[in-house]
User: Which sequence fits this backbone?
């Protein structure tokens, strides 16, 4: 698929002098995908600024264009989407190729499920391994069905959307914003009320964006950590401008680098601070990190400027219920934990086994080859920090952008350089990672 001809590009990171500067990391990936998808379901033109122009998001834009929306780039990070209305998607001429993106693929499956059309979904080798049954189960209840799929409910999948979508009440089996979003997207086209119940709250970007575009959505608590989301179907979504905040998952890399490299002082602007995404900040502060927040404001999503300075970190116990608010940040947290004094235990990381790679095993392997003591117990990752990292290892990234970036950050502060076997996949979420890090003073060669 998309990456068959990709060139493998290894890269080494070595001990650097102080990092310093003020930068804006790319736009948030979750918001970028959703802005394109929801823009396509409105009637009229939606203008998006700050869109993340990584491969994953571009593939979602292409898919929405193939499904009938007018999607065009009008400048750096500036996009225009003219939508077809709820239930108005048309059958695409070819296969919808989502490359490496689980989010784009699963959300668009939800949108297609509510329309009387057929579409084939596919992706690269990594996406073809990821579970899609968790999306197919609920959207089948709405009335969609998979007419063709690979073994185990995996891609490629041909989906026949519902002729008369049925509103459902669905309890998600695991805390997953992707499952919830797919059900809500399918429910948009159904008459009556669609309800999603989560026993543990997942990211709420879909609910916020539905409200932003004028849908009737209510969110109420359900149990201790859970919530119930109620959507009135068949709304007319109205175009509304979207300013995409900087992605906290991308900000995590220069942020942790600043904490680890001696003498550093780095400010990251416009970072999204939605409470369901700030688990890493909470954890790093518990570890003793100096991270100051300024210029707090809201544009549909809360955002702020974050200033990080070199800090002596200590090991902590990270509770399992924090996992949904930082699921993508565990690789870089594990790197921070390796430089901390004492043991850090990250609990309940089952979801990491079904990300772009088995991230739990990949992180543990990467730490081990660089002389860090680590173990996996059940779904817990335990890192024994010694205040310094020997380094010198070659890390297998398994085509996973976050593994690659996390271990490059490790090399900036370890005794010996750290090499990652492939950096080509970093472009999926953070196309300018290398130049931005070099601009802050990082030694990458």
Assistant:
């Amino acid at each position: 698929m998309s990456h068959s001809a990709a060139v493998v590009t290894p890269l080494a990171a070595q001990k650097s002098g102080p990092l310093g500067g003020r930068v804006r990391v790319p736009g948030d990936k979750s918001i970028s995908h959703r802005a394109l998808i929801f823009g396509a379901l409105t009637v009229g033109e939606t203008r998006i600024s700050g869109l993340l122009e990584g491969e994953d998001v571009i593939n979602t834009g292409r898919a929405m264009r193939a499904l009938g929306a007018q999607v065009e780039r009008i400048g750096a990070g500036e996009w225009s989407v003219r939508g077809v209305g709820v239930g108005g998607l048309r059958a695409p001429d070819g296969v919808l190729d989502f490359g490496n993106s689980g989010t784009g693929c699963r959300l668009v499956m939800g949108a297609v499920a509510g329309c009387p059309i057929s579409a084939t979904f596919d992706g690269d080798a990594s996406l073809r391994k990821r579970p899609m049954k968790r999306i197919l189960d609920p959207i089948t209840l709405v009335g969609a069905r998979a007419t063709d799929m690979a073994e185990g409910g995996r891609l490629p999948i041909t989906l026949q959307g519902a002729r008369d979508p049925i509103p459902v009440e669905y309890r998600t089996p695991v805390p997953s914003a992707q499952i919830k979003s797919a059900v809500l997207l399918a429910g948009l086209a159904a008459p009556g009320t669609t309800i999603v119940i989560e026993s543990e709250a997942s990211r709420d970007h879909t609910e916020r964006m539905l409200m932003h575009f004028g849908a009737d959505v209510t969110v109420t608590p359900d149990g201790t950590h859970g919530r119930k989301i109620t959507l009135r179907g068949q709304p007319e979504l109205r175009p509304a401008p979207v300013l995409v905040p900087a992605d906290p998952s991308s900000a995590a890399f220069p942020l942790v680098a600043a904490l680890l490299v001696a003498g550093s002082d780095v400010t990251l602007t416009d970072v999204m601070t939605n409470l369901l995404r700030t688990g890493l900040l909470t954890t790093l502060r518990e570890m003793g990190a100096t991270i100051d927040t300024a210029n707090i404001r809201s544009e549909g999503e809360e955002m702020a400027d974050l200033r990080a300075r070199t800090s002596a970190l200590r090991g902590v116990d990270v509770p399992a219920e924090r996992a949904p608010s930082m699921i993508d940040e565990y690789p870089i947290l594990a790197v921070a934990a390796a430089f901390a004094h004492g043991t850090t235990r990250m609990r309940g990381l089952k979801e990491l086994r079904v990300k772009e790679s088995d991230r739990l095993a990949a992180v543990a392997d990467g730490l081990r080859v660089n002389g860090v003591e680590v173990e996996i117990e059940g779904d817990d990752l335990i890192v024994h920090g010694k205040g310094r990292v020997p380094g010198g290892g070659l890390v297998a990234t398994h085509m996973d952008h976050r593994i690659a970036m996390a271990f490059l950050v490790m090399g900036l502060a370890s005794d010996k350089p750290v090499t990652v076997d492939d950096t080509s996949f970093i472009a999926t979420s953070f196309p300018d990672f290398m130049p931005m890090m070099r601009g802050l003073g990082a030694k990458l060669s």
Remarks:
- The longest helix spans residues 248-260.
